[in-house]
Every structure is written in C-alpha cells, then in structure tokens.
C-alpha cells in the first residue's frame, strides 16, 4: 500500500502531465488566434513538441496502454484516421493536404499493425508435468 505522500506525489505528477498535454495541444492548435508571425510559429512548434512528449509519457502508463491496445479502440483508430486521411486529401489544397493525409494515413496504418499483431496467437506453452 502506498503512503499518503507517495499517493499525493503521484496525483500531482499525473495532473501536471495531463495539464502540459492539454495546454500544449491547445497552444499548438489555437496560437494563430492570439499571436502573429514568428511568435505564432514558435508557440505552435513548441506546443506540438511538448504535447508529443507528454502524450507519449501518458501512453506508457499501464492502464492507458492496456486500453489503447484493445481491439475496439484499434479498430476505431484505424477507421477514423483512415477516413480523416481521405477527407484531408480531398478537401485541403496543395502540400498541406497531402502531408495531412500522409500523417493520418500513417497513424491509421499503425493501428492496423496493432490489430494484425494482436491477431497472431501465441503458441501453446508446454506444461512441465512430472508424470509423463
């Protein structure tokens, strides 16, 4: 059983991690409404970088990792991101549309890889039985 201090530390660390993730995700997507020029670019790229780091740290937690690797979640990610890739390709012009479609397509293929890897059955383990 954890002590009270360890529980509070864990809660504060998780709260800060989620706050960084959500705050930097918002900064990366909404900085254009508040900032202009170079400051907008810096806020966007810094927000993307910090939210990627925080998101990858969150995804490594056992509960989140177990949830993200379930077949229903992987199917949703595969289909949704594949649809978003197709919509991006047809609705956005130029290189931005192509890059958005490629990025979302890669995420969709990653979810498909998780589905395929999950379908492979592990071979049955031999049981060491002394009576044979």
Layout of secondary structure:
Blueprint: H1 4-34, H2 37-59, H3 62-68, H4 71-91, H5 94-119
Helix pairs in contact: 1-2, 4-5
Structural features, described:
82% of the residues lie in helices and 0% in strands. The protein folds into 2 domains: 65 residues, no CATH class; 52 residues. Helix 1 packs antiparallel against helix 2 and helix 4 packs antiparallel against helix 5. The chain is flat, with a radius of gyration of 21 Å. With 132 residues, the chain is an all-alpha fold.
The biggest beta sheet, please? Answer: none
SS-derived structural category = mainly alpha
CA distance, first residue to last residue: 43 Å
Q: Indicate the overall shape.
A: flat
Total of helices:
5
Report the C-alpha radius of gyration, rounded. 21 Å
Low-confidence stretches: none
Task: Give the DSSP E fraction (strand runs of 2 or more residues).
Answer: under 5%
Order of helices and strands: HHHHH
Oligomeric nature of the chains: single chain
Number of domains: 2
